[in-house]
Amino acid sequence: MAMQGIRSLLLLLALLGPWLVQPSSGQSRKYQQFLRQHVDPYSEGGDATYCNQMMHRRRMTVPKCKPVNTFIHEDIWNINSICHTTEIKCKNGKMNCHEGIMKVTDCRVTGGSTSPNCRYRVTAGTRHVVIACENLEPVHFDG
């Protein structure tokens, strides 16, 4: 009985996740999009089922399957703190990227997947990440 209650609570947190990390109206649209696409502090990620469900829930399977996406499993304060580290060059040549080490789940679409039933393979772990920031807010996952 207690195990079912824990599962229900975890499911509720997973469903509410995007709204629990939702920024205030004073924060930029790019930051809000970054949170929707990349932040999931209430999960450890893990398997392909996680990627398949999260990519669908976070609206990254329509109008086409997003080929690659990374979910960061850290609290928003840890993620925001990356923007206070030394600036480095982004892939696009701008000097507004920052780096850190985070727990992540990388989702890559499998061959033959079609929208909206996209299927993903997963790589999960702790690794080096690069994030672009504007006005001390993370706005783009660069790698």
Summarize the structure.
It is built from four helices and four strands, in the order αααβαβββ. It is of the alpha+beta class. Belongs to the pancreatic ribonuclease family.
Task: List the SSEs and their pairings.
Layout: H1 2-20, H2 29-38, H3 48-57, E1 68-72, H4 76-81, E2 97-109, E3 120-134, E4 137-141
Antiparallel strand pairs: 1-2, 2-3, 3-4
Summarize the structure in words.
GO terms for molecular function: endonuclease activity; hydrolase activity; nucleic acid binding; RNA nuclease activity. It comes from Vombatus ursinus (Common wombat). Pfam families: RnaseA. The structure is a single chain. This protein is of the alpha+beta class and 143 residues long. The protein has one domain (2-141): P-30 Protein, CATH 3.10.130. The protein is 31% helix and 27% strand. It has four helices and four strands. It starts with a helix and ends with a strand.
List keywords for this structure.
P-30 Protein, nuclease, 4 helices, 143 residues, single chain, globular, secreted, alpha+beta, disulfide bond, four-stranded antiparallel sheet
Catalogue the unreliable spans: 5-25
CATH fold annotation: P-30 Protein
Structural class: alpha+beta
- Widest sheet: strand ordering: 1-2-3-4
What is the typical, i.e. mean, pLDDT? 87
Number of DSSP strand runs? 4
CATH architecture: Roll
Principal-axis shape equals globular
User: Could you name the CATH class?
Assistant: Alpha Beta
* Element pattern in H and E: HHHEHEEE
Total tally of structural domains:
1
Number of helices: 4
**For the report, how would you describe the main beta sheet?**
4 strands, antiparallel
State the distance separating the first and last CA atoms. Answer: 42 Å
The percent of residues in helical segments reads 25-40%
Radius of gyration: 16 Å
- Tell me the fraction of residues in β-strands, as a range: 25-35%
Domain Ribonuclease A-domain: 27-143
Family: Belongs to the pancreatic ribonuclease family.
Main location: secreted
Signal peptide: 1-26
